[in-house]
Design brief:
2-methylcitrate dehydratase PrpD, 60s Ribosomal Protein L30, Chain: A, 2 domains, two-stranded antiparallel sheet, 21 helices, globular
């Protein structure tokens, strides 16, 4: 890594050196096995997202203005230009709050990293499975580290991290698969970084929140493709004191940690800290849902047995998901913690079948959500970003009894990662009715043996129209 004190962009350069120099042989076997499972999970999420309302609007709108048919879309026979395919596929992966999340870095990594890679490898038979995996690891490493650098205050002040941090994962992965030089990779990061934007108010009832990951994927792709042709970007995109990413997207200079960008890079892999989601709602809600299920396992209760449920969490949890629910759309329903708790208690699960459009105004769920309080616990906030999803849940029974459960991380986290069977089961559950069992099996086998694939573009065909 760059350590010369005279270098004005040691962190931007250090990240670029890692991305440009990463080889398949540099990556531990455990990381390769993990990234394949994470990618399979993202593919399942993307295929499920193929026919959602926001996806259909995007495909119709972009199809009307885009005469290109170079790149495939997940679960569709429609093709678009590479940038538009990256936009749509990223939206599909992140389209129903099912995809992976790096909790400490606050980023849905697959949704921003994979679409540019698929757009590039389609039609490039010289890129094999090992090169694809290497590029994916590069992307999965960089974005979360930018998130760790910025800290939880970044999302707390109103920036949507998928739309801001995500451009760096996208650019890093695309730069690696294109085999860009160190200087070109610096430019790719600098071009992508200046396109970063996204507001957390999008979570309140709008479709546009679904598109943020797609825009990051698109911006990163643009960064790498332009840098490949000699286009230059901000050379010190991370550390520039005026107008740099970190100084601009943070409240003050003491709120970010540039060292987190390169500390342990290439040795301590953030891939192993990316979590999976087994509920179809925002990751901030999962720990609370697990806690309630655990309480129910030792003392079963129904909605008529308690007065209220109180959830104590970090400031980010309280702000991000703890507001009083209002029926503003599916996005809001899937992000709102009281509504998701009500869904679990009434429906017994919080997955795709529980979030049909008519659920938004479901009176029983709304009424029950009013008996769920989300309160800020300063002690949890003081623990820092690593514990931002820690919660203590209290169930206050009508007979005066009180049950409590404290959880630091949900099932599917790096501390309790799902098995291969769990992830394959989720993939099948998501794609049933959208793919034949034969097509499902082909995707699973190709993904789990991707390092043996001589042409990574073959995988793209499997995840497009597969009826």
């Amino acid at each position: 890594m760059a350590k010369d004190a005279n270098i004005k962009n040691p962190h931007s350069l250090g990240v670029a050196e890692f991305v440009s120099g990463l080889t398949f042989e540099d990556i531990p076997a455990a990381v390769i096995e993990r990234i394949k499972l994470l990618m399979l999970d993202s593919i399942g999420c993307g295929i499920y997202g193929a026919n959602l309302p926001w996806t259909n609007i995007l495909k119709k709108t972009l199809g009307a203005i885009d005469s290109s048919n170079d790149c495939s879309l997940f679960g569709s026979d429609q093709k678009l230009s590479a940038p538009h395919a990256a936009l749509v596929n990223g939206t599909q992966i992140q389209g129903f709050e099912l995809d992976d999340v790096h909790r400490n870095g606050v980023l849905h990594v697959g949704a921003v990293t994979l679409p540019p890679l698929f757009a590039i490898v389609e039609g490039r038979p010289d890129i094999d499975g090992k090169a694809f995996l290497t590029a994916a690891v590069a992307g999965y490493e960089v974005g979360p580290r930018v998130g760790l650098c910025m800290g939880q205050e970044h999302i707390g002040q109103g920036w949507h991290s998928g739309a801001t941090l995500g451009v760096f994962s996208a650019a890093a992965g695309a730069a690696r698969v294109l085999n860009l030089s160190i200087d070109q990779t610096v430019n790719a990061l600098g071009i992508a970084g200046t396109q970063a934007a996204g507001l957390m108010a999008a979570q309140y009832g709008s479709m546009v929140k679904r598109m943020h990951a797609g825009r990051s994927a698109q911006s990163g792709l643009y960064g790498a493709l332009l840098a490949e042709q000699g286009f230059t970007g901000i050379q010190d995109v991370f550390e520039a004191p005026y107008g740099g990413f970190c100084s601009t997207f943070s409240r003050s200079h003491d709120r970010y940690n540039l060292a987190a960008l390169t500390e342990g890079l290439g040795i301590d892999f953030e891939v192993m800290r990316v979590a999976l989601k087994f509920y179809s709602c925002v990751g901030s809600n999962h720990t609370s849902l697990d806690a309630i299920k655990h309480i129910q396992s030792r003392r079963p209760f129904g909605v008529d047995d308690f007065d209220k449920i109180v959830i104590y969490g970090s400031q980010v949890t309280a702000d991000h998901v703890g507001w009083p629910y209002q029926p503003q759309g599916l996005t809001s329903a899937q992000l709102n913690l009281p509504f998701c708790v009500a869904t679990l208690l009434l429906e017994g699960d919080v997955f795709v079948k529980q979030f049909k459009p008519d659920c938004v105004e479901n009176k029983a769920r709304i009424d029950l959500s009013r008996r769920v309080e989300v309160l800020h616990d300063p002690k949890i906030t003081a623990l820092g970003a690593k514990f931002r999803h820690k919660v203590t849940v209290e169930v206050h029974y009508k007979n005066g009894a009180l049950e409590t459960e404290t959880r630091e991380a949900p099932i599917g986290s790096e501390h309790s990662f799902g098995s291969e069977a769990d992830i394959v089961r989720k993939f099948v559950k998501l794609t049933d009715g959208l793919m034949t069992s034969r097509a499902q099996k082909a995707v699973v086998e190709s993904m789990l043996n991707l390092e043996d694939l001589d042409n990574a573009g073959k995988l793209v065909g499997l995840i497009a129209a597969s009826k």
